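Page 42, continued from yesterday. The earlier attempt failed because a stray header line got pasted into the input along with the sequence. Redoing it now with the clean sequence only.
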Amino acid sequence: MMHRHDVAPPARTWLLRFTRAERAIHHVTGSLMLICIATAACLYLPALSTLVGHRETLKTVHVWCGFALPVPIVLGLVSRAFRADLRRLNRFAPHDWEWLRRRDRRAVRGGRGVLPVGKFNAGQKLNAAFVAGAILLMLGTGEVMTFPDPWSDRWRTGSTFVHDWLFLVIVVVTAGHLWEALRDRGALQGMLTGRVDPDWAARHHAGWADALGEENTQVNDMDSGMDKSSAEDDPEFAKRRPGMY
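This time it went through. Structure tokens are written below.
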């Protein structure tokens, strides 16, 4: 006779948020960015430069990591899931503007967010746009600084000015990004494992959770790692409601 305590509890259900390819792109790009920030700090700050030493080695690492920044993003375009997320990040819907205006943008009522936030909120979209623009600007100005011969003094001076000041802005934005990630365990889990709890999705990305519905890809304790998302078959695109994407 089977007792109640002998019955195995139901397996926990998770929502697939990021594929392995998407997580790899994020991790490699983030690592390269952090290396560039750390080496730049050592090159620009006299105290750190004296403490660490090996200036030429740091400069070489900084230059090569800087030029490598676009590589994981370009290679990631072979992933349908990554391309679909790029399209999401590039779309600013009416509720995104409302998310920016409202102070209670993160409020939860009845276990759901007050706004129908999609897979990415407006802050994440703006951060992605800034990072993309910053990488291109740093790449261009870095090329002028690394290979100065073809360029005039005006170009070299301007590139150095933009490169140095943009570095400071990148430090601030990166610190804010890390702060937001570390204080939101659900978001951090999604980027580390690819899976998120449906309750977390309903609280922070209600529109995305609604669009997925019962047809969304679900995984249990094992990460399938399969690239199952595309702009054509993703429910967030195919079944969007008025005012969503």
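Notes: The chain has twelve helices and five strands.
Reminder to self: strip header lines before submitting.
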